[in-house]
Design goal:
The chain is mainly α and 139 residues long. The protein has one domain. The chain contains 5 helices and no strands. InterPro entries: Hemerythrin-like (IPR012312). Residues 17-136 form the Hemerythrin-like domain. This is Hemerythrin-like domain-containing protein.
């Protein structure tokens, strides 16, 4: 898989990240309110939608980056290899959180720990995006 032109253009790449993060924050806000209102059934439904969001928007994008953009970056600029390893580690951290959240939802249902993990995902992704945008312009 070759990375699309959008992944190599810093502005459009940043827009992809910001849109996904904005949606994730909105879902977290909805989930927070539902838990506060003790609407567990609806909260569980939104939690699964949020997992799907992370899988389809962020993690699918991450996979495309790893299979295209990151390989291209290292080929063209070998000095970026450590940065790319760190960015991939961020993706693996996000994959780990999503996996743990799914396990918790299936085994225990929705709880505050899941909400905290969704918030942690947003923070990891925010930091990751800043680092990626720092590296991309040098390219």
């Amino acid at each position: 898989m070759v990375s699309g032109p959008g992944l190599k253009q810093v502005d459009s790449h940043a827009a992809i990240h910001e849109a996904a993060l904005s949606e994730a924050r909105e879902l977290n806000d909805i989930l927070t309110q539902l838990l506060k209102d003790e609407q567990k059934e609806k909260a569980l439904e939104i939690a699964y939608i949020t997992v799907e969001h992370w899988e389809t928007r962020t993690l699918r994008h991450a996979e495309a980056e790893e299979n295209g953009l990151y390989k291209d970056l290292v080929e063209e600029s070998p000095e970026l290899e450590n940065d790319v390893i760190a960015l991939t580690r961020d993706h693996n951290t996000m994959r780990y959180f999503v996996k743990k959240i799914k396990e918790t939802l299936e085994n225990e249902g929705i709880n505050d720990e899941v909400l905290q993990q969704f918030h942690a995902l947003v923070h990891v992704d925010m930091f990751h995006n800043l680092e990626e945008e720092r590296i991309l312009p040098h390219h």
